Fold this sequence. Notes:
This protein is α/β, with parallel strands linked by helices. It has helices at about 1-10, 40-45, 65-70, 100-105, 115-125, 140-150, 165-170, 180, 190-210; strands at about 15-20, 35, 55, 75-80, 90-95, 110-115, 130, 155. The chain has a six-stranded parallel beta sheet with strand order 5-4-3-6-7-8, sandwiched between helices. A two-stranded parallel sheet has the order 1-2. Helix 5 (about 115-125) links the parallel strand 6 and strand 7. The N and C termini lie far apart (about 40 Å).
Amino acid sequence: MSHAVWMYVTGAAETVVSAFFRPPLRRGWEHVQQVGPLLRREIVQAEPTDGGFVLSYLRRHTPFSAIETLAQCGLPVKVYGLGARDPIGPLSFQPIDDRQFAADLAGCRAVISAAGNQLIGEAIHLGKPLLVLPERAHGEQSMNSHFLRAMGCGDFVHLEDVTVGDVRGFLSDLDRYAAPLANLIGTMDGTPQVLALIEHWLSQRLSEAA
């Protein structure tokens, strides 16, 4: 991945990495600024509640077997990412709506989803335990999944392997994630740090031009 980064970015004044996790920096890269995900106002201002349902965000090529597995989890599930369609048992498929998604994320009991950095960060910010379903061949999702497990805020099963037992086991043991999440609720937003860095460099350039 580092080779691809260098192809697109050279001579940067500042290197900022936005992620829900903060691993130790390699020697020689101590100058890198690590910040949390850049969260939307709807997420930052949301008040978390437990509405007794699961929020799921799935990619469009999710196999139907995984959808059937979710339908047997024992709780209502609001599914985003697959477009509006007829319900399947307790699964309701939601149309694209950023504001409603944020409200449902704040109101859910837990999240079962693809393993994207942004959603994981938003869920942790709101104190929601996650079961993420990375695709085996997707390097970024696998990396995110391992860091999520290491932080104690959730767990993962590969999308191709997930079973009803995995999903029900996760939902029956949500208390195990409560303490790690409690330490991170409301702390994920990296936006203020990024804005401060941008303002710093803008001010410096203006001073040099004066």
